[in-house]
Amino acid sequence: MFGLELSFIWAGIIALSVLIYVILDGFDLGVGLLFPLSKDESERDVMMNSVAPIWDGNETWLVLGGGGLLAVFPLAYATVLPALYMPIILMLLGLIFRGVAFEYRWRTTRWKPLWDVSFFGGSLVAAMCQGIALGALVQGIHIENRTYAGGWWDWLTPFTILTGAALTVGYAMLGATWLNMKLQGRIQAHMRRLAWPFAVATVVFMGVFSLWSPFQNVEYFNRWFAFPTAIFSFLVPALVAAAVFGLFQGLRRHWDIIPFLCAEALFVLGFIGIGISFYPFIVPSSLTIAEAAAPDSSLMFTLVGTLVLLPMILIYTAYTYWVFRGKIDPEDGYH
What's the pLDDT tens digit per position in 117-175? Predict the structure, then answer.
């Protein structure tokens, strides 16, 4: 029983790490996605400056989530990774290209357009592949005898392409609302206008995903439409509607902070909905959290270290955002 509790504690830690990564690095990737829609180089400079102090720290949570999965759910790691080799490798390459572009575009004038394209391309590939990987998990991974038994291209389906596009558009919405909050003047107005179509598209994608995903697996259908979990079928959409209302009201009234917070709330609610669909599986319909967990001794050993490190990461992340709060001065920047 104690081991069962440890596995669920660890599942919560990994889920929290992934959620924090999505809501923090999501707007970071969104800034890169908006690069082609900027009006000039000065706008791109200010856009990049808005995430300069925090972009690499945001990715700490991806490392924590992936490393935690390997350490405490090795069976899930060993079955999910072969199924998602291609989107995961492409995602990592995209993140590498954006990181290199972030550093190099400030060191050159002649090649700056090339690094701008790399920053956008890396952001696009990373966002799209994250959505595709999520879609592949939702639609299910074929496992036999505790090993992956599917094909090389099982991850590529209309449903996964939809989730990839949905997450990419959602990240662009986060980026636009972040820039609306951090910038001022002409560029703020420009980003606020861009937030509208991306917000509308995100809401539409969420609706399509919510209607399509229960038919990917009978377990999802039963969970969302059978009592008592059917309560969430009314509660979550109601909260989503409230977040959508706050988002559009904030954009219409030219508020700075509320649109960003409501956009983040949409992602949190979407993540909660996926969690409700998955529970108690870590690999839907194939491996439960308890089945995929490492031995109790390993869970306890890693948990002790994590309980020390996790508050430290949360504190320095919060401190960084506090230090760099407020509007961006166009005269200051990353050099």
Answer: 999 999 999 999 999 999 988 888 888 877 877 778 888 899 999 999 999 999 999 99
Residue 68 structural domain? 2-323
In the chain, pLDDT over 70 holds for what percent of residues?
95
205-221 pLDDT per residue, tens: 998 988 888 777 777 77
> What one-character DSSP code corresponds to residue 192?
H
Residue type, 328: I
Measured at the CA of 88, the angle between CA 223 and CA 53, to 5 degrees, comes to 100
Retrieve residue 52's tokens.
């300069």
Q: Over 60: is that where the pLDDT of 3 sits?
A: no
Q: What are the CA-CA distances from residue 301 to residues 75, 237, 305 (Å)?
A: 18, 39, 7
Angle between helices 257-278 and 186-212 (to 10 degrees): 20
Assess if residue 330 is contained within a domain: no
Contact 107, 52 (CB under 8 A): no
Distance from C-alpha of 200 to C-alpha of 315, rounded to nearest angstrom: 34
Percentages helix, strand, coil for the chain (3-state, rounded to 5) are 80, 5, 20
Residue 185 falls in which region: left (phi positive, over 0), alpha (psi -120 to 50) or beta? left
Q: How many domains does the chain have?
A: 1
